[in-house]
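Most newcomers find our protein records easier to grasp once they have seen one. To make this concrete, we reproduce a full record directly below:

===
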Amino acid sequence: MALTASPQDQARLLDLQGLDTRLRQLEHKASTLPEHKEIERLAAQGVELRSRLSTATGAWEDNQAEIRRLESDVEIVETRAQRDRDRLQTSSSVKDVQALEAELVSLAKRRSDLEDIELGLMEVAEGLRADLDAVQIEHNGLQGAIAAAEQARDTALAGLRAEQEQVAGERERLAASLPDDLVALYEKQRARYGYGASLLRARVSSASGVALTESDLAGIRKAAPDAVLLCPESQAILVRTGESGL
């Protein structure tokens, strides 16, 4: 049996379609907020900055480790030199004294060389520390920018979600006020074709934007006002009004 519904209920399907269209627009807007792209852009910068931070941190830590190694070597040389000086004070052998004095000269040279290398590393450390601090400041600033962009996104999404809830509530109330079989057909066609209802205005279906043929219009004219028709172009429920041009 062909589905029937009052022209008034059929016309109200256009309001239902309008609410569904608005919900789809809100969902699209939520997924395409400019804040999403800004966060992606900042995140890409974060990847590059983290790489630079890792490199700068590694260079600084390697430098500090080398300085600590040299300091340890200097301590070893100094310990050995002190031992030789102590032995020199108690030795009575000319041969031993000459050997100890020669070794002390060698150790002094070794210590001087180590300290020169350490001094050079310390000078390098100043530049490495400055580079690390600069990258860290840049990284911290980027994290702040990301947090701000995320806050802006969340605020925008909250506004959109609130509007979605309002529109969804209106839709639920409107759908509940319409005949179940009419709503079921509307939902079925909308799920399949994207539109559940289409206004016929001046012989053009709003869902497809296509003017109906004279053959299609002839069949529509013969249909009863309460007959539920489908648009031959969009397959949505075709709503006829005084603007339809029949």
Observations:
- Residues 7-27+179-240 form one domain.
- The mean pLDDT is 93.
- The chain has two domains: 7-27+179-240, 33-175.
- Residues 203 and 214 are 9 Å apart (CA to CA).
